[in-house]
Amino acid sequence: MYQVIVKNARIPQGDETVLTNILIKDERIAGFVDGIDGIEAEEIIDAEGHLTLPGCIDSHTHFMDPGFTHRENFLTGTSSAAAGGLTTIVDMPCCSVPSVRSIPELENKLEKIKDKAIIDYGFWGGVTGEDVREGWLHNVKEQADYGVIGFKVYMTPSVPTYPRVTDPEMYEAFKAVAETGLPIGIHAENFAICDYFVKKFQKEGRMDGPAWAEARMELAEKVAIQLGISFAEDTGARLHIVHMSTGIGAKLVKEAKLRGLDVTSETCPHYLTLNYEEAMSEYGAFAKIAPPLRTKRDNKELWEGLRDGSVDFIATDHAPYHIEDEKAKKGMNIWTAFPGIPGVETMVPIIVSEGYNKGRISLSKMVEILSTNAAIHYGLYPKKGSLNIGADADLTIIDLDKEWAIDQEKTYSMAKYNPLHGLKLKGKVAKTVVRGKVVFDEKEGITVKEGYGQFVKRQSIQKLDKKIKF
Ligand SMILES: [Zn+2]
Predict the structure, then answer these.
(1) Residue 296 parent element (H or E)
(2) Cα(92) to centroid of ligand 1, in Å?
(3) Is the pLDDT of residue 217 over 70?
(4) How many C-beta neighbours within 10 Å does residue 115 have?
(5) What is the mean pLDDT of the chain?
(6) Backbone phi and psi for residue 153, each to the nearest 5 degrees, phi listed first
(7) Are residues 394 and 435 in contact, defined by beta-carbon separation less than 8 angstroms?
(8) Model confidence over 186-213: pLDDT tens digits?
(9) What is the pTM of this model?
(10) What is the CA radius of gyration of the chain?
(11) 354 with 273: CB under 8 angstroms?
(12) Residue 260, Cβ neighbours under 10 Å: how many?
């Protein structure tokens, strides 16, 4: 007797697909069969012949819980993620009160959110300039032992509860994280350049949307990545560039990989689809993010980076803010509005539509960048990110032909704004399955109770193959 059979599932086999039926027992994949006559199961889920991917993963969210729950909380965030076809997210340590940089803070966060999650979730560990100055770096190993998947540092100020690192402090953080064998993710923008040009533009009276992106220029990301690569080379740390926004960044990561360094990167759907001149002119603060949107050339070069392996996977940097108080408050301007946009509900459909359906990436590449690579990089594979027998029965079922448009009002996220509003897509999530249970159905919405999602610890230390294509 099986728990579930997912029938008529079209699963990827390299760049081809096969139609099969997936047997599930104890929340895990138990086998694949051609026919299901005579096989008993408590429940049958019909995938209707749709493409069925290993559960998609967003390894970069800011769900703001606990502390900033007027922006998002773990229920709204994970509901939005489930509707976007995600089966696992990994939440960042910075956007909460307290921020997460020690075992008590990890335990506090888990306690506050565990009864809210719809899908499975892991945690990033934290390390800041304050941890270095106060002699708290022992927290790094302790968080690693607890099961975090990596560590995040900010080169520029972001959340007041999560102080940025100066260059030498970042070097100290790299040394501490290197000892754990886990990746260190850096927010790669040079603080001095951003700070100087923001102030200069303010003095000149620039108040237009694009000014934000022009002040926090490409060069700020370029030199920040170069510094990170130098530190990785010196310390042996596994450097990961989070939310990489520039084509030059992809080229630097590629060079570093070819030199044999442990350097990886992710980019986000908005850096593949939007450019600052159009989006920031039209949406102003609602398209304000850090690092900022770039140019059409960067869009193109980041797709190329995904194809050639210099960009390892996709993540969202989902970071919603409160419209009335933090984006469009009276007297607020492009410099003072908070930087961040939602993303978990649209990541998979954008990559399906703009990537796979438009022929920019192959099927096998799509599986890697939406699921497998993040799972491997963060030590969750093959429990997550695979259709192996024994893996968690996490599935993202996609109707490849369904045409629709992103609507900022129709979202489970608390953020009812989106610079991608109106974008027409082909390909939509039909069902999201987490450990054998449908958590989202396109017709019924969210189908499990809050608290169904489980905390996933890092399983082991794993590394991605450096498969750079020329
Ligand atoms: Zn982020």
Answers:
(1) helix 296-308
(2) 7
(3) yes
(4) 13
(5) 97
(6) -125, 150
(7) yes
(8) 999 999 999 999 999 999 999 999 999 9
(9) 0.97
(10) 21
(11) yes
(12) 9
Kindly give the distance from the C-alpha atom of residue 408 to the centroid of ligand 1, in angstroms, as a whole number. 20
CA–centroid distance, residue 20 to ligand 1 (Å): 38
- Look up residue 122 and give its two tokens: 């892991």
Tens-place pLDDT, residues 395-444: 999 999 999 999 999 999 999 999 999 999 999 999 999 999 999 999 99
**The pLDDT value given to residue 94:** 95
How confident is residue 470, by pLDDT bands cut at 50, 70 and 90?
low
Structure tokens at 8: 């008529």
How many other C-beta atoms lie within 10 A of the C-beta of residue 273? Answer: 21
Ligand 1 centre to CA of 274 (Å) is: 18
Amino acid type, 432: T
- pLDDT digits 0-9 by tens, 162-189: 999 999 999 999 999 999 999 999 999 9
pLDDT over threshold 60, residue 64:
yes
State the DSSP string of 122-184: EE-EE--HHHHHTT-THHHHHHHHHT---EEEESS---TTSPPPPHHHHHHHHHHHHTTT-EE
Q: Tally Cβ neighbours within 10 Å of residue 358.
A: 12
